User: Fold this.
Amino acid sequence: MAKRSIVPFGPQHPVLPEPVHLDLVLEDETVVGAIPSIGYIHRGLEKLVEKRDFKQYVYIAERICGICSCGHGLGYCLAVEKVMDIEVPDRARYLRTIWLEMSRIHSHLLWLGLLADAMGFESLFMESWRLREKILDMFDETAGGRIIHSVNCVGGVQKDMDSSMLQDVLRAVSDLEGEMKPVVDTFLQDYTVQSRLKGTGILTKEDAVAMGAVGPMMRASGIEYDARLLGYGAYNELTVEPITSTEGDCYGRCEVRLKELFQSFDLIREAVGKIPQGPVSVPVKGNPSGEYFVRIEQPRGEAIYYIKGNGTKYLDRFRLRTPTTSNIPPMVEMLKGCQLADVPLLILTIDPCVSCTER
Amino acid sequence: MNKVSKSPWLLHYDASSCNGCDIEVLDCLTPKYDIERFGIINTGDPFQADILLITGGINSQTERVVRQLYSQMPEPKVVVAVGICACTGGVFKECYNIKGGIDTVIPVDVYVPGCAARPESIIDGVVRALKVLDAKQAALKDSGR
Assistant:
């Protein structure tokens, strides 16, 4: 048996913008084990629910993570609304869906860029992030912020989109769709990209089920499931088909996310076509009392939000299970047997979001 | 600003930010804002960095890492706190694991507020950091080092 050595990876390293620490157990160049340690971005946000009232906490929930901000705000609001029996106006449901799909596009484009960067394909990284700016401009126009947009509130949404904004969104989406085609071809057809992605980091369907993978990671292993099928927001009135791949490798995960981009374009078009007129929020009276679980599909997978109210304006408990938390055990399994040089790529293909995970 | 006296290399570290400012820092390097045209490169190596961009407040785990990164950078060095969390702790100030802004651990030269700080203001912060860097360079020369 070759001699084993342990290589620390992180927390500060050039691949990811976020601190992640892994102890890699190596036999020569092959990884035989990985021990993740987390806690570098732990702030203690769940506890903060005792110091902010339940309406103010939406702003904290949105700052759990800057990439999944829109979804976190929505998940928290959905849970509070369910406890308080608030019926959200139809227009607000559609607006939430449009913003959530826009944030999915922004998150997936960001991930594609980082993936290209991890492979050393610099120009593809720049191109993905250039395209992402179009969506950020739309966030800027419709919500007033590029990253943190604070659109959700308990009882609806804070801002309305007028018809010219909706048309701008549609135009941005079709521009993006046209310009995405060469990028998609590069990711899926290019020889160099395929040589890095195909066959690396295989997660079988059985492993994905046993270890509880979620989101694109699970769908890339061939499991047809998407939390959007639960029908929160306006998804019950839109067409959502889970996008799957049977490969289970890095290439499959890349393919699933690329196809989800186009699915999001279609969903935005459909939602803009169907959006009803009317108010965008309802007044909220009283305080939440009771508990509830909400599941929503974040760009990275299924997130679970739990709240427990005690009848005062401060909640007793807020709990969040993020998609990255569930994807870490399959990632550790995937790392076993890979080459040291592939480690950054494999970590990246689960689309880790450390801020969400550690809160 | 008439001319850039130096093309500084940046070191970016996420102390405990929500990612918002981090992706905006990366955004500065990509085609829309493209500060790389001034020779400003995001390096992962503290030994080659001139400017340390830190996002997020300090917590018990990152305190050690931030101190270490700061001590590894060569003189002259400038620290830019990006985002309101890095400046004061921001919305996370009352969290049990947040000690406060970056200046509770290492000296900060430039503060860039905002949640999330926009790329324009981050670039402005880097330009202001350049002036501080020039001043520190001059001071080093005067002291005969």
About this structure: The CA atoms of residues 87 and 132 of chain A lie 34 Å apart. Chain A touches chain B at residues 11-14, 17-19, 39-45, 47-48, 51, 59-60, 63-67, 69, 110, 113, 125-127, 129-130, 133, 145-148, 353-355 (CB under 8 Å). The mean pLDDT of chain A is 85. The first strand of chain A starts at residue 4 and ends at 9.
